[in-house]
Amino acid sequence: MTPLPLSPSLPAADGDEYPPLSALNDLLFCARRCYLHRVEGVWVENAHTLTGSLDHRRVHAVKDGDLVTGRTARGLRLVSHALRVQGVADLVEFPGGVPFPVEYKRGKRRTWDNDDVQLCAQALCLEEALGVTVPAGAVFHVLSKRRRDVPFTPALRELTRRSAARLHELLRLATAPAPVLHKKCRQCSLHAVCLPELIAAPREYLRASESLFRAPAP
Ligand code: SF4
User: Fold this and answer.
1) Distance from the CA of 193 to the center of ligand 1, in angstroms?
2) Is residue 207 part of a domain?
3) Measuring CA to CA, which residue among 60, 79, 73, 71 is closest to residue 9?
4) Which end of the chain is more exposed for a tag (fewer CB within 10 A), N or C?
5) Which residue range is the domain that position 54 belongs to?
6) Closest Cα to atom 3, ligand 1: which residue?
7) Residue 205 is assigned to a structural domain of this protein
8) Which atom of ligand 1 lies closest to the CA of 189?
9) Are 197 and 208 in contact (CB under 8 A)?
């Protein structure tokens, strides 16, 4: 297959100041977590984050850099000046010469759309660089070894564009947004730093902590 001329369209330095594609995923998981991590530099590893990093290190061990030399490209640098994001694609396949991005994720299929938006943002980067339409991609779930195809519908493209705009607004805020308690807080590695129960329901926590130190009635 003739190598695609990706390099001239993907300047290595131009998008360096843009936030990474993964910040879109963070934002849709939790805006507060995204702010704490991306603006305040707070990061705590837990089993989920460590295994995720290891999976990606394995995927990126084989790199094609900025050049597509075969039927697949790994570790491809991507940038979108329209969305003002940049990053690295885990894997891009080219069935019939059409780019098909594949993002590796550790967990089972998620119930929220953060992975799909991150993948769609990769597609928009590829479209901007190559001037082609990227109709679909896939999320590869490492634990179940199953691929889930993701069509880049008009609705998903619109959500991705709105998420990128929200991300840039978030990164300009002076303080972190308030926590919103959700069941996903339980698996969040920043839980001990964020203290969502304390901030989201301070009265109950104050009452509980006061009762700890109240002298027992004589
Ligand atoms: S603990 Fe919950 S509210 Fe706090 S950063 Fe994590 S997901 Fe967001």
Assistant:
1) 9
2) no
3) 79
4) C
5) 7-177
6) 179
7) no
8) 6
9) no
Q: How many domains does the chain have?
A: 1
Q: d(Cα 48, Cα 143) in Å, to the nearest integer?
A: 12
Q: What is the CATH number of the domain that holds 24?
A: 3.90.320.10
User: Is 25 within 8 Å of 118 (Cβ atoms)?
Assistant: yes
Residues in a beta bridge with 88 = 77
Atom of ligand 1 nearest to the CA of 184: 7
Is 41 part of any domain? yes
How would you class 206 by CB atoms within 10 Å of its CB: exposed for 0-12, middle for 13-18, buried for 19 or more?
exposed
Averaged pLDDT, groups of 10, the chain, 218 residues long: 40 71 94 95 82 69 54 90 95 93 79 86 97 96 87 97 97 93 89 85 68 67
Task: Measure 173 CA to ligand 1 centroid, in angstroms.
Answer: 17
Is position 191 within any domain?
no
**What 8-state DSSP symbol labels residue 131?**
-
**How many separate helices (H) and strands (E) can be counted in the chain?**
8, 5
- Rounded to two decimals, the pTM is 0.81
- Copy the structure tokens of residue 27: 């934002």
Q: What is the DSSP string of 81-102?
A: TTTTEEEEEEEEE-GGG--EEE
Whole-number Å distance between alpha carbons of 51 and 55: 6
Question: What is the reported pLDDT for 72?
Answer: 86
